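Two quick folds needed for the group meeting slides. Do the first one here.
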Amino acid sequence: MASSREGAPSATYQGQWVHSAYDPRQEARTWAEQQVGEWKAGELGVVLGVGLLYHIEALAQVNPHNSRLAVVVPDPSVLKDALEARPLGPWLDSIQWITGMPHEMAEQLASHSTSLRFFTYGPAARLHAEEHQRLETSLRRIVAAQTGGRLHVAVVGPIYGGSLPIARYVVRALGELGHRVTCIDHNVHHASYQAFGSHRDERSRLTVQSRFADVLSLSTIATIGEDPPDLVLAVAQAPLSLAVLQHLRKKKFLTAMWFVENFRHLTYWQQLAAGYDYWFVIQQTECIEALKRAGANQVHYLPMAADPVVHHSVMLTADEQQEYGADVSFVGAGYANRRSLFPRWLSRDWTFKLWGNEWDGAADLSGVLQRNGARIDTDTCVKVFNATAINLNLHSFSSLELDAHPDFVNPRTFELAACGAFQLVDERTLLPGLFSSDEMVCFRSPDDVPSLIPTWLKDSGGRRAHADAARRRVLQEHTYRHRMQDLLAAVGLHQPDRIGSILRGERSAAELKRRTEPATELSPLLNRFPSDRRVELKDLAADIRARAPGRELSREELLVLMLDSYRAETRDLL
């Protein structure tokens, strides 16, 4: 506790002020006024951050529409200290206090039949950042399970690279969930992009390729403008420039990026951080903090996954088993740490096969390299996974040893597991939150591997038990369907009146009729649609135009056409 210059009690945490050192009441009023602009009637306002309650008091006093207000209290002792620190008024009785473990608080919030509007008071919320993160994770999963409405999502893929198949998995997962998907596939332009790489002058090559990527950005805008989506979802390395992202925001499009990259190695996120409304990343604390410092507003952890349509157990012929099988295998590119460590793991006591490209110059591995280092397709990868007794999964690193920052889990971990394949994986800090020790075998040191290999080669039953358990875990929790449910739920939680309302099914014909019951003149327009069909202004307008020839339009129909015309004008993107 500390006194502010104005005289009111204030507080500090780890050397930083939780409330103003000068005038905490005025600071709280300013904060509250900034929050209420988005607070819609009927929404439950949920405050993260307790402090000395100045901000909650201010929010309660400017509460629009007399909406309900709840406060998340991970530690009741903090609330007790606040209640004892200063006199409080009758507004206190109108607050709902949410307490308990994170999953219990999530269940309490999810039990409300209304949408939630979150308000984070940063200086106080950082005291319980971890609990708030677990609360949101639990809440996202609850919301994802309750999803009833259908979105239109535009998925923007890269020109080439490792995230290209991931974009395709995302498209399939969204479609399986029942959403309408527009796939903007820039891989069709890969040959042209490569052709520009023939310029000998590096500056000229990079300039031309950059300008070509800008053209693809404009092409993306044109596609989006023809059929506006609810959400534009880009996958890592999608050719969307900051200028295009800013233009989309100006036109009220929501954008999200699933950055399926190591933020330390590929750093283009620094230029794009402020451009996307939402970032989803495969790393946690350091990555999230770095993106926020660079200007990102919403950053969420979303790990990799597998696609069971592609990654699954297969029956191999005798010839396939002969070609792809081995005691030990690895599939992947020739990063420095792999070139350094794999020769140390070769032995006459087991067979070793190395698959993939970028192994030029690795003379000590030439005897085990398959197909002269040619790139192999996904079907071949799956066959290798299934044919191998022990699949090595060594995460890439530019140095000669294990990754010095093992804070992400690569796609191969999930894909091997989905195939029912046994793997030895280098230890990762986030792996225990994804798989248990009964599902995944890890090694901490390169020196562990030569002893782990013969141990597990002798234990076929143990390998099978681990592989089966890991496969069950993937199918239960780690498919791209699960990831897309989580992603959309996260956006829906923070956009309760947009994405959230659609996911809750509030845009269906039946729900719109119920909500507009007093306006009976709208019923004939809505009756033309199936009760579970999502209906937007453009759908009403299209139906009216289709029925317009040869009859006089009603006043309501003319108003709908006028509004739709205005909507089209404001969405003119180019």
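Then this one, please, same format:
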Amino acid sequence: MSGYEEAGCEYLLRGRDDAAGAHLEERMSEYAIEVENLKIRFNLASEKVDNLKEYAIKLAKHQLMFQEFLALQDVSFKIKKGESWGLVGANGSGKSTLLKTISGILKPYEGSVKVRGNIAPLIELGAGFDGNLTARENIYLNGLVLGHSRAFMEEHFDEIVEFANLKKFLDSPIKNFSSGMKARLGFAVATMVNPDILIVDEVLEVGDMRFRRRCNERMQQMMAGGTTLLYVSHNIESVKSLCENAVWLDGGKVRMIGSAEEVCDTYKAEQERLMRQKKEERREKLRAARKKYDYLIVGAGLYGAVCACELTKRGKRCLVIDRRSHIGGNVYTENRDGIQVHKYGAHIFHTSNKAVWKYVNKLAEFNNYINSPVAVYRDELYNLPFNMNTFSRMWGLKKPQEVKDKIAEQIAELGITEPANLEEQALSLVGTDVYEKLIKGYTEKQWGRDCKDLPAFIIRRLPLRFTYDNNYFNDRYQGIPIGGYTGIIEKLLDNIDVMLETDFFEYRKENPDMFDKVIYTGMIDEYFDYCYGHLEYRTVRFETERIEEPNFQGNAVVNYTEREIPYTRIIEHKHFEPDEEREHPKDYTYISREYSAEWKPGIEPYYPVNDEKNSALYEKYRELAEKEKNVLFGGRLGQYKYYDMDKVIEAALAAVEEELRFH
């Protein structure tokens, strides 16, 4: 038992006879941690002192002034042995101060903290390391700091090295290690024993996904062995997953104590309310400031955000506005009960452009998700894209040449030489069976009309793969950002003025002199007040719901290809981040049914209808756009063009380079 623990027990029993003390100890022994009316006070200097000499002079002359700051005020709670508790709260709420007090690093100003059992405090991983020493030397040093003997460290040395996965770097100075490597080593040393109490401060937020999963597994093992857990994280879902109970600290005071789910949900709702309030205050502040900008960027989607970021890097002042209440445009993802929901449909990033892949990887860590959708036709299920798995299921054929012969035979029987419409075009490419089961109904739902009434050029080709490969994309790089796409947009727009729920036409009317140029990513026909008429779009309606089962369909994307089923596909969002689900399994899921529909004014346009009529109409608007001074049109709506995400980034980067070439 450490000196701190001995002092705690001595305080507990002091002033009582043996019988009373024994009775009290027996009654109170169910608690591992007791915090009663705790106050922690810090003295903050009211003026800056640059060196020790100046400090001594001011101290001697009684010129040092301090302001009292209560980091914790009247905090009280009790944790029973073997329980798991989370601490939640905003930055500066007192969470880390409380952990340090329980660990014995800080002493109470008022009140008491009583701890029973040995503690493994993971508050600052690697705090006991010496940067000039090797990893091997630091293992022994850190073990000594944590109270372990050299014999103990020698006994567990190989286990520590294996868990940290740093065998190749044992004799390298630790000052050359990344923060993730230091974290792995610190965690491995600190958790070599099953402590009575494990105190963790944001450890799962350090390192990559695999390291966080291993940390989580070791913590689960400790708790299964009776260890009491006190855990701090800004990841509310990890608190709910690991902990039974929670304490919400707000400004150093206890705001709420209860079940982890109830406390975390209430805290999350409050944070969202404050965030909305902060956004509105910022919006009003920007309006009142009447700041002059080089560029007004209309649309906080991927195109607008990349333009804003790159222009700001080059010293330009940018304001980004958007009609919606959030940034991100159609790539926006929102956290619903720990699942990143793609609010506007599935977005899988894929590219063969190495430069674009490097660009996005600076903004987020991507997983290795491979898009492998499946299609349901009546009681049959097929792999997509069309490959040997598809054909084998459809015809029972196993050899590529057999499949080629089968398709060629069906095409020959049709005798189509000049396809007059989409149906004939598709039949001439893939034959009858593939068309009827996998193309016809799905396409008619997407376009809202019979395939015979659609132009042939919509389907110029249909890729047929004669390999057993379910990877939908041919691009070299593919994945989904861990934590969703919204984080990417947040980084792109970091330190850039943003006004949401703001209409461009109203803002321009009210503030005509507040910007020099416009980058417009809205509908090009709307910009010109539909003077030539409306361009046509297809739109998508989403029905998103929580399902109380852990796995609804076993795949992220399932297409429904028969026309009688009204939706085109169902997205199950948790499957986009399989590592997250393995680390924090949930007994519920979120799905979205997608319904394709004709666009009407007032709803969100998605896909341009690039037929002959609309292409001619767009050309007329494009000619107007070229004559517009100081306005650049870009993106899916501004250029009436379907863009994959990588092509959006390419186009935005190219537009900025072109814009700044002569400016």
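Slide caption for protein two: Residues 1-19 have pLDDT under 50 and may be disordered.
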